[in-house]
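User: For my dataset I need records formatted as: sequence, then C-alpha cells, nothing else. Please produce one.
Assistant:
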Amino acid sequence: MESEKIYVLNTLIVPIDFSKYPKATVVLQKISVEEAKQILSKDFISAVGHEATAKLLTQLLGVEIPVNRISVFLEPGDTAIHFFLKTRLPEGKILTESELKQLDFWLVKSQVL
C-alpha cells in the first residue's frame, strides 16, 4: 500500500478518481495558518499552478510552495491543504501577488476517508 500523501492545491475542489473509487467520503475543515504549517512540515506535493499564488503561499506558510501545474487524484488516507479565495474572480482574471494579498481567503484541510 502506498503511503498517505499530502497535497497543496489552489482550489477547493477535491479531485477523486471516480473510475477507481465510485464513492468517496471527504472531511473538510477550515484551518489556521499555524495548522497548515504543521501539516506541511512533512513531505508534500504542490499542485499549485499559478505563480503568484505559489509565492503568496510560500510567504504565508514559511515553506517553499513550488509552482507545479499537475493533475492529482486524492486517494483514501490522503490530505490536502486548499487555498480558497472567498471572492469569485472575473473570467480570465489572473491576480498578481499584491492583488492576492488584498483578498480574503480560507485555508481548508481535506481528508479522504
